[in-house]
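Q: Hi! First time doing this. I have a protein sequence and I read that you can turn it into a structure. Is that right? Here it is:
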Amino acid sequence: MDIKKLQKIVINALEDMKAKDIEVISTSKLTSLFDFMIIASGDSTRHVKSLARNVYDKVKEADGDVLGIEGEETGEWVLVDLADIVVHVMQPVILRTTILKSCGRRHPLAVKTLGTNKSESVRSVRISPCVLRMSYRSLAINE
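A: Yes, that's right. Below is the predicted 3D structure, encoded as structure tokens:
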């Protein structure tokens, strides 16, 4: 499936379920394992689980490949591995402490986000290296 089509399916699935803080991050210059990371938050564990499950279902309906889904048991942080795109859905407190802090590293990585709509401009954010490590772990487990 075309990566832009997959990205649109994921964003629509998240927006349909009222996800918050949706960010699309290009990781192609940081890793060769996946091209984009999409991060979103939900209001509760139930909301986070529903968001991730909706992404899973919508990608499957479109005949896309879902390599794995992790974290549904707790619902604090759910990762959906779509090969070229890794989706992180988490509660706001996890988002703040994981993304905005550096998980043991003093300086988070600066990356550019693409926004979710054409009207949104590209902007830079700082992302924690531990989010990339979580993505790598998921890929290693699913292989």
